[in-house]
Amino acid sequence: MKYSQIGQDKFVLSVLGETHRGTFVDIGCHLPFEISNTLLLEEKGWTGVAIDIVDFSREWEERSTPFVQGNALECDYAQIFDDYDLPMVIDYLSVDVESSGDRFNVLKEVLLANREFRLITVEHDLYKGYRETEQVPQRNLLSRLGYSLVASNVGSGNGLPMEDWWANTRLVNADNYASFLSSGMAYRDIFAKAGITI
Known about the structure:
Helix content: 25-40%
Strand content: 15-25%
Number of helices: 8
CATH superfamily: Vaccinia Virus protein VP39
């Protein structure tokens, strides 16, 4: 079972373990139950914080994850993480905001917030032509910080390359994500290659 659009939640649980009770940050979370990258994690006992520019606070009352309404480009992430008692190592970061260049800028700000992340999924929408504004700068930044590109250009159901999946090589054993190593594959094919049903 998954709730996310292209299996991000199942990727996280597969790499870190179904019984792992971790922490997450969901930036650009949108509605709490529709195409959520973190609902399944919450159901498995994870905790975290969800952030969106649109005020979905009423809808998010249905979930135990706290919701912060704010522009992801202007948030004080260090303060938010402190306010919600997030640890120095956070298990999963999801970045899914909409305008060209914004995802990279949000990612850059989050990574300055005195926290490390085990796994990151970040949208780049290469299929929209965002190579120079999103994909290239995201990859340069994360590679420089010691993250390993696990699944590059993860494709949607129709194969459009929209996202990269990353692991922190200092915090995650490479054997845990080896089955996900891929480039330009539709997400269903990635999971099939890994022997995981979604």
